[in-house]
Design a protein that fits this description.
One of its GO terms (molecular function) is oxidoreductase activity. InterPro entries: NAD(P)H_nitroreductase, Nitroreductase, Nitroreductase-like. Pfam families: Nitroreductase (PF00881). It is a single chain. The protein is of the alpha+beta class and 246 residues long. 43% of the residues lie in helices and 14% in strands. The chain contains eight helices and six strands; from the N terminus they run H-E-H-E-H-E-H-E-H-E-H-E-H-H. The strands form two sheets. The chain has a four-stranded antiparallel beta sheet, with helices on one face. It has a two-stranded antiparallel ribbon with strand order 5-6. It starts with 16 loop residues before the first helix and ends with a helix.
Length: 246
């Protein structure tokens, strides 16, 4: 999985529908609250890609020209990823969209493992009326883009295998809960990276906990001094009364 790459230029060979159905076994275990299966896929091949190009042109307000829109022709097989949520009291729509995205990525990984190149493409017009109509989307459904699928050029695959592209530092994606005092005093920048203490995170920021402790101590001392002064005033008053009686 760590070696997976998005392949922008794929070859003309593609998996057939039978092979795709076999690969879908890897998709069904996707995390899916209440097992709603809120996703579906459409395969787009041959002249259907021209129809998609025409729908994209219509969505962008472009007049149909002599040449077809080249974008859907960048692969022989496109797989449309559709989020198809179901109303449920315990599973909000955003969570079902996340499940659909998870299913699409699992399919990407399964295709990669089977030796196919994949590029997940989207676009601002993906959910324009003309494009939605072409895909037969229901009102509650969302088109999440297309997986462009094809074979990988052997020379390019070899370059991938010998690539020395440095991996991303995983520690930048892993954090812990913010410290309690940070939650109470700071509404932003609250995440503490794994392996880093709160003191390291705050750097030269003032120690709020120590400040509060000092304030509390000062208030207590002031209160004590006030009570002492009050008590002394009472004693002085009593002494004064005794002198008057004499």
């Amino acid at each position: 999985m760590a070696a997976r790459r998005s392949i922008s230029k794929v070859g003309p060979q593609t998996p057939n529908d039978e092979e795709l159905l076999a690969l879908l076994d890897a998709v069904t275990p996707v995390a899916d609250h209440k097992a709603l299966r809120p996703w579906r896929l459409l395969t787009i091949r041959g002249d259907d890609r021209l129809r998609l190009g025409a729908a994209l042109d219509a969505a962008a307000g472009r007049e149909p020209g002599d040449k077809p829109n080249p974008k859907p022709l960048r692969a022989e097989l496109l797989i449309a990823v559709i989020a198809s949520p179901t109303e449920h009291p315990k599973v909000p729509e955003w969570e079902q969209h996340a499940t659909a995205a998870g299913a699409a990525h699992l399919l990407e990984l399964a295709l990669w493992q089977a030796g196919w190149g994949v590029m997940w493409r989207t676009g601002l017009d993906a959910n324009a009326p003309a494009v939605r109509a072409l895909h037969g989307l229901r009102e509650n459904e969302l088109l999440m883009g297309w997986l462009y699928v094809g074979d990988i050029d052997p020379a390019f695959r070899k370059r991938l295998e010998t690539s020395r592209r440095p991996p991303k530092d995983p520690s930048q994606f892993l954090s812990t809960l913010p410290a309690p005092e940070a939650v109470a005093t700071e509404s932003t920048d609250a995440l503490v990276p794994a392996g880093e203490s709160t003191e390291q995170r705050t750097g030269d920021k003032p120690d709020r906990k120590a400040e509060k402790k000092a304030e509390k101590k000062a208030k207590k001392a002031a209160k004590k001094a006030k009570e002492k002064a009050k008590e002394q005033a009472k004693k002085d008053k009593k002494k004064s009364k005794k002198k008057d009686r004499r």
